[in-house]
Design brief:
protein serine/threonine kinase activity, Immunoglobulin-like, signal, eight-stranded mixed β-sheet, Secre_tail, Thr-specific_kinase-like
């Protein structure tokens, strides 16, 4: 037993050593002269270094970013967020009045009100900034309370917990668009201006190849009449892209003056006079040969603060199960996984990550090795976590799916800098085709719900939330919606991964051509149905008012079947997952088929 513990300890030390990254920078006074001997420590720990003769410091530290504490005799104690491998210049202030101490954090300053509660204020870098401008991410304004006596609790220190215990639900606002429109402007309207996300003006686009297969991972832009790009996205595994006007409060341009531009194989294809979703779906057939994408990148971004302690042990087991099952459920996919853990700017680290790997066991090991601790207030560094996930992870240039599961129990800070970072990161995620899927744990508030549902919409994702049905954790926030189904969290996540990742083979044996081959023996008859693509309702024109009408998926599975009662038959496909289906009519004498593309 002692030998096993020794091996585990050595393994942990090796893992930590591999994860060390360089934190460096220089410290100057108000006269821009180098300060020698400044103590620079990771806030809350003994790790750090002193500045040398050149006024600079450098040390190795675990994490993508850390909160630093700087002390120097005769100068104000200062704090800053430093990012790995991005040198930072910090300007310290002389302490003219210790009773009126100023705490500098990020690019701004704040007066200290009490030892237990601090308000951080940060503005964008300027000529009067407290730090000299450097090429590193902006720091952000935060208000937080330090909770004395908190400590890290390692997940490995608790007994193994079986997966399948947490319960969850899903609210996909694309599937309930009219309801979401009402909710966002009525029930949750007070939060619109707080976060400055306005998911109202939606331009839904469906791209297909000539054979009817969805065109996957095609860049699409919404452009105004001056050629300026308003929003960028990439088509998903169903050939669908969601683009937005005015999402972050930008001025609106009439739809008639907007153009949708798709880029495929070095050529540009346009849809002039883009239609808002309520006026119809924007469709485009690309005159290109069908190609199937099988690459799938999945990132798990997890809040590791102390407030997650009631559920983090269970979540570790659930995520491990999801990672293992994802590969098994996508046998033809080139799957990679990664993980990002984050805390807040006052903790030992802000974000740490393990980049994409084709070995799921590596991500599983990383997830299991994490601990929770720190934090202490409600808002956390969600914006920093998303920035790390979108910018620092090596997402593939071409893929069938790029999924980001954001597991959290608190919203980000509401200051202007954090909002701007959220806006920019959300735009970048949409442009890269990264679909953000929040997984909300106990403790979330309504303002956070509005924000996260908006981010999910902006990136063509969906909104997942834990429920009280499991009896695990604190009180869970029920979303503002009409209804939802309760599922096991691991099953739900595996289902979403499948729905967002599975793609059609260009030579699928059960596609339209194989069905037509059988039909040609009876005269090569075709069925007429409209609209196509459709968000759900379909009208089918039939040769006779009798027979059977069937809905079949591309695996040949019968999904629906009904007896025909008239020459015009109405179908509702809205309950099925988005994708391509076959409608087949049979009356004992002939068979007719048509391919239907179902959108959300």
């Amino acid at each position: 037993m002692r030998s096993l513990l020794t091996l585990l300890f050595i393994s942990a030390l090796c893992t930590c050593a591999l994860a060390q990254k360089t934190i460096s920078g220089c410290v100057v006074g108000e006269d821009n002269e180098q300060l020698i001997g400044v103590s620079v420590y990771v806030n809350g720990s003994a790790d750090g270094a002193a500045t040398g003769l050149d006024g600079c410091f450098s040390f190795e530290q675990r994490g993508d970013s850390v909160a630093l504490k700087l002390t120097y005799v005769g100068y104000v104690t200062q704090y800053a967020v430093a990012y790995a491998n991005k040198p930072l210049t910090i300007k310290m202030k002389l302490s003219h009045d210790l009773l009126d101490e100023v705490v500098v954090i990020g690019y701004g300053e704040s007066r200290r009100e009490s030892p237990s509660r601090k308000t951080r204020s940060a503005a964008a870098p300027s000529t009067t900034a407290d730090y000299a401008p450097v090429a590193s991410p902006d720091t952000y304004e935060v208000t937080y309370e330090r909770v004395d006596g908190t400590s890290d609790l390692a997940a490995a220190s608790t007994p193994d917990i079986s997966a399948g215990q947490l319960t969850a639900g899903e609210t996909n606002d694309f599937g309930k668009w009219e309801l979401w429109t009402d909710i966002s402007k009525e029930d949750l309207s007070e939060f619109r201006d707080i976060w400055q996300f306005y998911p109202d003006n939606r331009y839904a686009t469906q791209l297909t190849f000539p054979n009817g297969h969805p065109a996957v991972d095609v860049p699409v832009r919404l452009v105004n009449r001056w050629g300026q790009t308003i929003w960028s996205a990439r088509t998903d595994n169903r050939g669908r892209a969601e683009l937005w006007a005015g999402m972050t409060g930008d001025s609106l341009t009439p739809a008639s003056q907007l153009t949708l531009v798709a880029e495929a194989s070095g050529k540009t294809y346009s849809i002039p006079g883009a239609q808002l979703f309520q006026d119809g779906l924007n469709t485009l057939e690309l005159p290109r040969q069908c190609n199937q994408r099988t690459e799938v990148d999945i990132a798990f971004v997890v809040d590791a603060t102390g407030s997650m302690g009631d559920e983090i042990r269970y979540l570790s087991s659930e995520l491990t199960d999801v990672i293992n099952r994802a590969q098994a459920n996508l046998p033809g996919a080139e799957l990679r996984t990664s993980a990002v853990f984050y805390r807040d700017s006052s903790d030992v680290y802000v974000t740490i990550h393990s980049d994409f790997t084709e070995k799921p066991e590596a991500t599983v090991g990383y997830v299991k090795s994490q601990a929770h601790g720190g934090g202490g207030d409600h808002p956390e560094a969600v914006d920093a976590a998303l920035q790390t996930a979108v910018d620092s992870l090596a997402w593939r240039e071409e893929a069938a799916a790029r999924l980001l599961f954001l597991v959290l129990d608190a919203p980000p800070h509401q200051d202007e800098t954090s909002r701007k970072r959220l806006h920019e990161t959300t735009r970048q995620a949409a442009e890269k085709g990264i679909r953000i899927i929040p997984v909300v744990c106990s403790g979330m508030t309504k303002d956070g719900e509005y924000l996260l549902r908006s981010v999910a919409l902006a990136t063509n994702g969906t909104y997942v939330f834990l429920t009280d049905d499991s009896g695990i954790g604190g009180k869970h926030l029920a979303p503002t919606t009409d209804s939802y189904e309760v599922e096991k969290l691991n099953d739900l996540m595996v289902r979403v991964i499948g729905q967002f990742s599975e793609t059609e083979s260009c030579d699928d044996p059960t596609d339209l051509s194989s069905l037509e081959e059988n039909v040609r023996k009876k005269g090569d008859l075709r069925l007429k149905a409209f609209p196509n693509p459709t968000p759900g309702p379909v009208t089918v024109k039939l040769p006779r008012s009798e027979g059977l009408l069937s809905v079949i998926d591309l695996n040949g599975k019968l999904l629906q079947q009904l007896e025909v009662t008239g020459r015009r038959q109405e179908l509702q496909l809205g309950g099925l997952a988005a994708g391509t289906y076959i409608l087949r009519y049979e009356d004992g004498e002939e068979s007719r088929v048509v391919r239907i593309v179902l959108t959300r």
